[in-house]
Structure prediction request, 212 residues.
Amino acid sequence: MKIKQQIFVNLFNKFDDKPFALKDIREQIWIAQGKNPKKFISKQGYYNANIGEWVTDKLLLKEAKNTYKLGLYGMQYSKNPNQFNAMLREVKKNAKDYTDNLPHNKYRVNFTHLIGRKIINVRHLNPEECDNFKWHSSPLALFLDDSTCLIPQSDDEGNNGGAMAHIDLNDWREDYIQEDVLHVVDVHQSDEELRKEKEYYMNRGMTSGTID
Prediction:
């Protein structure tokens, strides 16, 4: 029996459909790895990546902070992992096919080139850049590794810079995101601030007002 299956068999045998804590999951991982149960130590961060993946796959259900239960998938996995894995692959494929073909997603093919791109820098647009767009709000721009950037706008016409929401899709993590809104900032600056900014760009051989 593989370690992962042994973990879920152990959890099912010990808790069935009753709730358990993060410490209990870590303990069953420890035991399934063949380690001495009497020497088990629960430390913050141990196996978090694995546990997060199991929550995402609904093998585990997170009911509250530090409170978990075996999901229906978890119970099925403990009984027949091969059958479950085949079913899960099919479910994920069907869900992706369904989402990709929804009417509001018909234009997604125009943006699939963004998949796999790397964000190499983030910063708010400077006043002159915003002035070029006739914006009074400075958005946070995401600079990519192919010399392009993503700049949020307030609407399709680009009437102003816009904010973005930053959402953690893994709801099992605690306080992973520091700022859940990538907010705009007021673009107006004093004459002294503008002078310092222009001086900063000039000293580096850069043109103020150019996105780089």
